[in-house]
């Protein structure tokens, strides 16, 4: 290699470090070879190099956001079979997957009995948000309750915590309704919802219809004031029907009864 080429190489090495663009450092030489053989213009080469850096940065950003969201498992909307959920508004679900509700700080409420896929859809929408560049935080209602209580009891206080949570554009509160809250926790939840009103999105899943949220918050007035703020700009998706777990188990059982040409193994002679 000529001394000139070596000098350029080390200059680029310094510059990509200063710019914090390691991908450029990794790909520029190979792309330069391609550019020469393919006869790319200088502009085409620059575009190709920058494109690789941006693609890598976006992928890394998504991975960081997914890790930071603390989802309880890996679920995607693509794996959610809407045939099992005949009542669900598919158009609404598809619209939510586009994440424009987050840009508008709107909320999503998923209501239905256990096993119908509420947590699955919540994680799936959270993943879409991470891909779209929005920071997400996932926890159960009782998880949030202890986080808010800890912040309330700490020296920094609840106000500071609510302010910190603003950096998450989507807060997911899973399983509201399984455990009732004491008065202080109910109050902290109300403050959370009030602080995010028209500022940041909340996605809540619950096994209880709105009419029964008073049981969770120990007070119908607090519950309805909260529901008011939540649903003012919100998509409420009722998810009914049978538990996916029981349904698939039953289908597996009935398939083995009808599809087995030999009949039940217990009948074989
Ligand atoms: P919920 O939160 O409503 O109690 P989950 O989301 O935990 O229900 O769903 C229970 C299990 O069934 C999960 O493993 C979930 O991935 C699966 N599941 C539920 N509904 C569907 C569906 N329509 N398509 C695919 N998997 C589903
Ligand atoms: Mg659940």
Task: Please give a structural write-up.
It is a single chain. The chain is an alpha/beta fold and 269 residues long. The chain has 2 domains: 3-66, no CATH class; 77-246, P-loop containing nucleotide triphosphate hydrolases (Rossmann fold), CATH 3.40.50.300. Helices cover 58% and strands 10% of the residues. A 5-stranded parallel sheet has the order 2-3-4-1-5. Helix 9 links the parallel strand 3 (170-176) and strand 4 (201-206). Helix 2 (22-38) runs antiparallel to helix 3 and helix 9 runs parallel beside helix 11. The longest helix has 28 residues, at 42-69. The radius of gyration is 26 Å and the shape is elongated. It binds adenosine-5'-diphosphate (ADP) and magnesium ion. Adenosine-5'-diphosphate is lined by residues 75, 79-81, 84-85, 112, 114-120, 244-245.
Topology record:
Blueprint: H1 3-19, H2 22-38, H3 42-69, H4 90-97, H5 100-103, E1 107-111, H6 118-131, E2 136-140, H7 141-153, H8 157-164, E3 170-176, H9 183-196, E4 201-206, H10 213-217, H11 220-232, E5 234-238, H12 244-259
Parallel strand pairs: 1-4, 1-5, 2-3, 3-4
Query: Can you identify the CATH superfamily of the largest domain?
Result: P-loop containing nucleotide triphosphate hydrolases
Q: What is the averaged pLDDT score?
A: 90
User: What are the low-pLDDT stretches, counting only 5+ consecutive residues below 50?
Assistant: 257-269
Largest sheet: 5 strands, parallel
**N- to C-terminal distance:** 81 Å
CATH topology of the largest domain: Rossmann fold
Q: So, CATH architecture of the largest domain?
A: 3-Layer(aba) Sandwich
User: What's the helix count?
Assistant: 12
Gross morphology is: elongated
Kindly estimate the percentage of residues that lie in beta strands according to DSSP: 5-15%
Rg calculated over all Cα atoms: 26 Å
């Amino acid at each position: 290699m000529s001394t000139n080429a070596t000098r350029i190489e080390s200059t680029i090495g310094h510059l990509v470090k200063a710019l914090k663009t390691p991908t450029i450092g990794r790909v520029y030489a190979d792309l330069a070879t391609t550019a020469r053989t393919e006869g790319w213009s200088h502009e085409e080469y620059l575009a190709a190099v920058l494109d690789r850096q941006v693609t890598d940065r976006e992928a890394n950003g998504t991975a960081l956001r997914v890790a930071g969201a603390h989802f309880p498992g890996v679920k995607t909307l693509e794996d959610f079979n809407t045939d099992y959920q005949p009542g669900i508004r598919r158009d609404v679900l598809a619209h939510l997957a586009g994440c424009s509700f987050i840009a508008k700080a709107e909320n999503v409420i998923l209501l239905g009995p256990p096993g119908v896929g509420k947590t699955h859809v919540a994680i799936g929408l959270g993943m879409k948000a991470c891909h779209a560049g929005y920071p997400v935080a996932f926890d159960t209602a009782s998880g949030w309750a202890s986080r808010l209580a800890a912040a309330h009891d700490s020296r920094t206080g609840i106000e500071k915590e609510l302010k910190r949570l603003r950096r998450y554009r989507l807060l997911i509160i899973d399983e509201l309704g399984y455990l009732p809250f004491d008065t202080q926790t109910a109050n902290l939840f109300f403050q959370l919802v009030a602080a995010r009103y028209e500022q940041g999105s909340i996605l809540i899943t619950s096994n209880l219809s709105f009419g029964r949220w008073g049981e969770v918050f120990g007070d119908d007035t607090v519950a309805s004031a909260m529901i008011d703020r939540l649903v003012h700009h919100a998509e409420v998706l009722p998810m009914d029907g049978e538990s996916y777990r029981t349904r698939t188990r039953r289908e597996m059982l009935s398939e083995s009864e009808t599809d087995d040409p030999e009949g039940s193994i217990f009948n074989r002679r």
